[in-house]
Amino acid sequence: MLQLQSLKLYVATAPLSGQLAFLQNSRSYSSRPSGDEEEFKAAREWFQKFTRNSVPEKIAKTSFVRSSGPGGQKTNKTSSKATTTWDMKTLQAHVPKALHPGLRGSNYYVMSSDSIRIDSDIYRSQSENKEETHQRLNEMIRSVYRSIVPGVTSEKQKMKVDVLKKAENTVRLKMKKMHGDKKRSRKGGGFD
Fold first, then answer.
1. Angstrom distance (rounded) from CA 91 to CA 115
2. What are the residue ranges of helices labelled H in the chain?
């Protein structure tokens, strides 16, 4: 919020050339994080092989506590709520480097312990809740991958974009010429 206010203040007080320089230097604040293309390539290759077993269950620590909410005597007597924790250092060894910032930015990230923690008390059994936490981790990794790693543009698509750019430029130049001709016709046709 403070950055937005300072930007408005700067834009209101700076001359146009200063505003242009400021905006050109601000390009680092894009919607996609800047990353090395090799890291993206490695992430794409990893994701093609990604399965639910890509992150081993043995690196997770799962504890069980009593669930809350409706369920009667079964809920009150059994510890069926699963809380699974993955240490970030251990998890990062199994996930490509390009995804690391996205993992830390997820809703499941716990900064104090530098870990990912997922709870589940949907089911009445411990094993199903434990499986649910692992499923949520896999879904989160897929979501992070889709939001961070850009897709590959095919040669056909690149050629299509080039053709469209050339067509747009041709139309733009044609319109510019027509506008110039119109202005020239106004200039020379005065009354005597």
1. 9
2. 2-13, 16-25, 37-48, 73-77, 88-92, 100-104, 126-148, 155-188
Summarised one tens digit per residue, pLDDT across range 41-81 is 889 999 999 988 888 889 999 988 877 766 666 666 778 88
Residue 83 DSSP SS3: strand
Q: Give the tokens for residue 186.
A: 């106004």
Instruction: Determine phi and psi for 4, rounding to 5 degrees.
Output: -65, -40
Q: Which of 140, 93, 86, 94 is nearest to 113 (CA)?
A: 86
Nearest CA to 95 among 133, 138, 135, 32? 138
Closest CA to 82 of 140, 135, 136, 127: 127
pTM, full prediction: 0.62
